Amino acid sequence: MIPKVLDMSDSDQTNIIQLEHVDKFFGAFQALKNISLSVKKGERIVVCGPSGSGKSTLIRCINRLEEHDNGKIVVNGHELTSAVKDIDAVRSEVGMVFQSFNLFPHLTIIKNLMLAPRLVRKASKSEAYDTAMRYLERVKIPEQADKYPSQLSGGQQQRVAIARALCMNPLIMLFDEPTSALDPEMISEVLDVMIDLAREGMTMIVVSHEMGFARKVADLVVFMDQGEIVESNPPEEFFDNPRNERTKLFLSQILSH
Amino acid sequence: MEALTGWWDDFFWGSLVVVEIFFVALILTVLFGLIGSAAKLSKSRVAHSIASAYTIVFRGTPEILVLLLFYFGSAITLTAIAQVFDPEIKFVDIPPFWAGSLAIALIVGSYATETFRGAFLGVDPGQVEAARALGLSNLKTFIYVRIPAMWRLALPPFGNHMLSLIKDTALIAIIGLEETLFVAKQAIGTTGKPFTMYIVVGAIYLGFSTVITLSVMVLERYANRHLEVAR
Amino acid sequence: MSFDFALIVDSIPKILTGIGLTFQLLFLSAVLGLALAIILLLMRISGRWYLVAPTMVYIYIFRGTPILVQIFIIYYGLPQLEFVRDSIFWPILREAFGCAIVALTLNTGAYVSEILRGGVLGVDRGLKEAGAALGLSARHRFIYVTAPIAIRLCLPAYSNDVISLMKSTALASTITLLDMMGIARTIVAETYAPYEIFISVMVVYLILTWIIQRGFGWMEKRMSRHVRSEA
Ligand SMILES: Nc1ncnc2c1ncn2[C@@H]1O[C@H](COP(=O)(O)OP(=O)(O)OP(=O)(O)O)[C@@H](O)[C@H]1O
Ligand SMILES: [Mg+2]
Fold this sequence. Notes:
In chain B, 79% of the residues lie in helices and 0% in strands. Chain B has 8 helices and no strands. Chain B has helices at residues 8-41, 45-60, 63-85, 96-122, 125-133, 138-168, 180-191, 194-223. In chain B, helix 7 (180-191) packs antiparallel against helix 8 (194-223). Chain B is flat. The longest helix of chain C is centred in the middle third of the chain and has 32 residues, at 138-169. The complex binds adenosine-5'-triphosphate (ATP) and magnesium ion (MG).
């Protein structure tokens, strides 16, 4: 069991991520409705909900891959507005892992890891290389450094993607269904890396339907449906005593298979 | 602009020649493309080799060279044959209209061969099997299932082939076809305004290209009508 | 009327004296055209209407009209305009060679920029987002992520365009230049042996096409190392 941040009852700790009444529209369609959420440093949030409920949109708004329409999003003290000049700087503090890995296919694994530190952090070649190798070792595939992404299995690619994000020393990690494109036998190798990360105190927002993972590491489980946060509670409460009907229905569906 | 007075009707007739030659060449192009692709897909090694040679030669040679070879080659052959009967004859040629449309159709047909081949290969084999299972003959399957399915895939690149065709018609002026470029040359001879005249030719061709582009868009929408989401 | 092999042996060396000019036309306009295409591409994807609109008009005009007409406008047409004769470009535009380069460059630039755009649009959105999520600036994303992948994607189409350009260089013979095609036409006018001469020059063009195809094929293979998986 990983110590939960909430248990530390450190109430004056500031929020590293803060969303207030956020709306997001795609044309006339409202993908996010009045979302408020705050995340403290070191906190781990698992977001779940049916397909199309807005989970991806929510975390993509946090590093501004999508621009929200109303409300306020503050990340590590920077408010995200259309005027924010150094959105790239904010993004370099926020790591993101995608469902489809999105490794750069034309670069070897080691170069995938070194690219952003060299360009954004202006790290020297040897610095970037050392950092990259360190993280490759952490995700347990240093021997793949000189291969191309297409030569790796899905689970390996996703671990590389996590390492690539970690090379930027992010304060926050966002995961968008990191295991749902993987064959079942590869899921645990990726989850293990994420559990390690949680143990070290990384602030994480994870969109996932891996309920075992949520129980193990989450401080808070957030259930979304139709663009709204329907229920959010610590995992024991969330799983054992769901209040909302929609949550109950969702849990019964997801746990039945 | 006043330089153009008196030349409008000549440009009009020249444009009409472009249209005529375009349609003749278009029919021939489709024909060559279908024959070529059928040969490329056939199991016959001979047919396959001939079709491959055809596409390699006509896609790798400058258009103007094909055109001149056709025109002067056929002329010298015909003249030689004619002289057997009447030594007085100096020169017999295939009319530029026919030599020209045949040449550009063979060129664009070689591209159409590849397009059609790819499109035939892209047709879902399940559809063909379904048709066969329903008892349609080979020919009926080809006409009612393969061709319609293949057309949808071939239409966008074939639109580009049509644009190539219309633009290649300009080359035929070189062998003396009296189309717009030829008219422009005559007009320049009397008015001394080459820029004006050639811009008119360019504008005429731009008009044709626009019409073709728009027509292909309409055709594509028609071909894909079953894919539109019901509202 | 028989095929005169002695004549072929005689004229091939003469034809090959034009290959230098053909190469010059091809390389100069390919390089300049690529530079122009990149500028047009950047304007086209800039998202600013005052850059996008002129680019689209430019591409529409140059792809919608025959290259022969473009060559004639530049070579025969522009000298009609006084401000062209007075401009600093006159030394280039006075010469047939300069006009051919300008025309071929402007033409191929329009086509290649569309090819490049196709490549850029073909790059998976997720990869650009991954770059953004890592904090790479828009410029770095374009240079290190989008461009290398796009180049690989458009190489086959680009190789076809270089072949088209090579074929278009033969049109320089219509404005008095003695490239391979120009020399071949001169010899045919003297000997009246179109088959022998035109087929010889055709073979040379086919070899050039083959070399270009091979060259790009090799490049494609080198750039696809990452696609081959270690089985
Ligand atoms: N770029 C877009 N343009 C238009 N609509 C979009 C866009 N992105 C998302 N949507 C819509 O917004 C809604 C929420 O999408 P989102 O991807 O956030 O859902 P999700 O909860 O992540 O679903 P899933 O579990 O399938 O990934 C969906 O209805 C989707 O169709
Ligand atoms: Mg999603």
